[in-house]
From TrEMBL:
<dbReference type="Pfam" id="PF07833">
    <property type="entry name" value="Cu_amine_oxidN1"/>
</dbReference>
<feature type="signal peptide">
    <location>
        <begin position="1"/>
        <end position="28"/>
    </location>
</feature>
<feature type="domain" description="Copper amine oxidase-like N-terminal">
    <location>
        <begin position="44"/>
        <end position="150"/>
    </location>
</feature>
<keyword id="KW-0732">Signal</keyword>
<dbReference type="InterPro" id="IPR012854">
    <property type="entry name" value="Cu_amine_oxidase-like_N"/>
</dbReference>
<dbReference type="InterPro" id="IPR036582">
    <property type="entry name" value="Mao_N_sf"/>
</dbReference>
<protein>
    <recommendedName>
        <fullName>Copper amine oxidase-like N-terminal domain-containing protein</fullName>
    </recommendedName>
</protein>
<feature type="domain" description="Copper amine oxidase-like N-terminal">
    <location>
        <begin position="169"/>
        <end position="274"/>
    </location>
</feature>
Length: 630
């Protein structure tokens, strides 16, 4: 969607703040823009540093002689004369600075600098703040007293104690080398974790020691300990204040997320921060939530299954426990395909919560049970999402629904594979972390290579010990009868309901879809897979639900049709396509919240409104559709 531009930068300030106007009397003029600073005091952990050679200023940045600086901060240094490079180590951290170069190497990573080290009177001079902060120091400059205070610890900087901090940015999970810091109930993280993990983003240290963070064309310019931020060159006051720690600029995450449009949640006891930026996470935009009661709808009077893609649901057992999954490997769901044609289309929808106490791997496999006919996977694409968060409808369900309705399923490497008679191959695999939930949807098309009738079994399988997924050919584990989540296989993955014709200027009408009654075709009894139990899918999870609304206008004038959606069984969210454009339905509370779809302008005497739904996993059904004339 975007081209990736990353600046490999540790957000280090290169030197001290600019010399304030009126302080030029403290400078002794010298050559090449270098000025001796006669009255600067430098304190390290409360002790005043005594330096025999002069402290100098160049381009409004303070520099110290190399040996004096590195000895003061407790770093050992090796001078490479042939390359004019100083390699210094403190607490296992390596910093390489080269004379005349504005690029440093910090633990092997390139770090841009505003000014370069230089030679002055046969001495090598290094930037004070850059060196101090990259060796774990906090630096404060007092322009009134002309004092630099540096606080150093003997701890290895940037390595949080205990379990690591985990950052989730949309669908990426990052194990952080730095802590998440909470100040006054606000979460801060180093800016590099944002621009390193979002496309079309970058980070740049500016000459005035401010830091510019660019995300998707929006510019944020932060200054240390200032609540003034420039957003696209406009000054905005925020309640939070960014700060430097261990040479990195910590920025207020909630401020950035709110500015971009997204959501944020920090689970402190798990040290996990979930950061969502909607323009990266979703293709579609959210409908605006409205508040108020809605009338009681009737059930959609009729519906039917359609399409040629069948459906395998792997959602039971949903919560994976040692009691339900006692062995090291298991089949979670399976479908023995009884093909009637050479080419067959399938959809696999899965939803599982890992409470097994260990990380596991889940896979979709196909076993060719024919003794003579090879089969080919002629198309294979899907989407998946995981979370350790409790917002499963938002984190997982909406992303799957959005990708499916927008035809944004990702191509799988299994497309084009040939499965010989008796062979089993992996279609897709997923690493599921302990205490995480996964949702996945995968479409695959399979044909007989020689045009015969194929015979094969589709499975979702699990391993706790990294066993080969293709070796798992057991029957499905028994269903969890205490939790009525669906499992089974059915002939179709699309359902169509045509509502009664609505005549303009008639009173509002409302209809429930996925109501467990008039449109419940995916029952326990008609599942094509019954081994060790099946449970129906009345909520149509993993399905495309199409709704056709005939409109009649005999007035001879243009009319505006208004559509509303409301949850009727509990918390609801999902995606809806309206005449070809997809919108996201935010979380709706039953009875008090609803969304309005874009108005439909009716100019003819007879027209049809076409809707298509996909319900987010983890939500409650039914959902009501209301039609009225505006």
């Amino acid at each position: 969607m975007f081209s990736k531009f990353k600046t490999s930068c540790m957000i280090t300030a290169v030197a001290l703040a600019s010399i304030l106007p009126g302080q030029t009397s403290a400078l002794a003029a010298s050559d090449n823009g270098i000025h001796i600073k006669n009255n600067v005091s430098i304190n390290i952990n409360g002790e005043t540093l005594k330096v025999s050679d002069p402290i100098v200023n160049k381009s409004d940045y303070l520099f110290l002689p190399m040996r004096a600086l590195y000895e003061a901060v407790g770093a050992s240094v090796d001078w490479k004369k042939e390359t004019l490079t100083a390699s210094a180590i403190r607490n296992g951290k390596l910093v390489d600075l080269t004379i005349g170069s504005k690029t440093a190497l910090v633990d092997g990573q390139k770090v841009p600098m505003v000014v370069a080290p230089f030679m002055y009177k046969d001495r090598t001079y290094m930037p004070l703040r850059f060196v101090s902060e990259n060796f774990g120091g906090n630096v404060n400059w007092n322009p009134t007293t002309q004092t630099v205070d540096i606080s150093l610890t003997d701890e290895i900087p940037g390595k949080p104690q205990g379990d690591p901090y985990i950052l989730h940015i949309n669908n990426d999970r990052i194990v952080m080398e730095d802590p998440i810091i909470v100040k006054q109930s606000r979460s801060y993280i180093p800016a590099n974790y944002i621009y390193d993990n979002l496309e079309d983003s970058s980070g740049t240290l500016l000459p005035d020691n401010s830091f510019e963070l660019q995300i998707a064309g929006m510019s944020f310019v932060f200054k240390e300990n200032s609540n003034q931020v420039l957003i696209n060159d406009e000054v905005v006051t925020m309640e939070a204040k960014p700060f430097m720690q261990n040479g990195k600029m910590y920025v207020p995450v909630s401020f950035i997320v709110n500015a971009l449009g997204g959501n944020l949640r920090y689970i402190e006891d798990k040290r996990e921060l979930y950061l969502y930026v909607y323009q990266y996470m979703y293709t579609s935009s959210f409908l605006e939530k409205s508040y108020g009661a809605t009338s009681k709808p009737g059930n959609v009077p009729s519906a039917r299954l359609e399409g040629d893609r069948d459906l395998l649901i792997s959602d039971n057992p949903e919560t994976l426990t040692s009691k339900l999954i006692p062995k090291s490997t298991a089949t979670l769901a399976q479908y023995q395909v009884k093909a009637t044609s050479a080419t067959n289309k399938h959809r696999v929808f899965g939803w599982h919560y890992n409470t097994l106490g260990t990380d596991v791997q889940i896979g979709i496999t196909v076993q060719n049970t024919s003794s003579t006919e090879s089969i080919e996977v002629i198309d294979s694409k899907g989407t998946s999402q995981q979370t350790g968060n409790s917002w499963v409808g938002h984190d997982i369900g909406l992303t799957i629904a959005d990708a499916t309705l927008n035809d944004k399923l990702k191509k799988s490497s299994s497309k084009g594979i040939i499965i010989a008679p008796g062979e089993t191959k992996v279609i897709e695999s997923y690493d599921l972390l302990r205490d995480y939930i996964i949702g996945f949807l995968h479409d695959l098309d399979i044909k007989a290579v020689n045009g015969g009738t194929p015979e094969y079994t589709i499975r979702t399988v699990l391993t706790k010990n990294n066993s080969n997924l293709t070796s798992i050919l057991s029957d499905p584990v028994p269903i969890d009868v205490s939790a009525k989540h669906p499992r089974g296989a059915w002939t179709n993955s699309t359902i169509l309901a045509e509502l009664p014709a609505y005549t303009v200027d008639s009173p509002e009408v409302g209809y429930n879809i996925s109501n467990s009654s008039t449109d419940h075709f995916l029952t326990t009894e008609n599942s094509l897979s019954q081994i060790n139990g099946a449970i129906g899918n009345p909520g149509h999870f993993g399905m495309n639900y199409k709704v056709s609304i005939p409109l009649v206008n005999q007035t001879g004038t243009t009319k505006t049709i208004k559509l509303k959606l409301a949850g009727r069984g509990g918390i609801y969210s999902g995606a809806v396509k309206v005449n070809g454009k997809v919108y996201l339905v935010p979380t709706l509370r039953v009875g008090t919240e609803y969304v309005e779809l874009p108005d439909y302008i009716m100019q003819g005497s007879s027209e049809k409104l076409e809707l298509e739904f996909m319900h987010a996993g983890g939500v409650n059904l039914p959902v009501a559709i209301y039609v009225e004339t505006k």
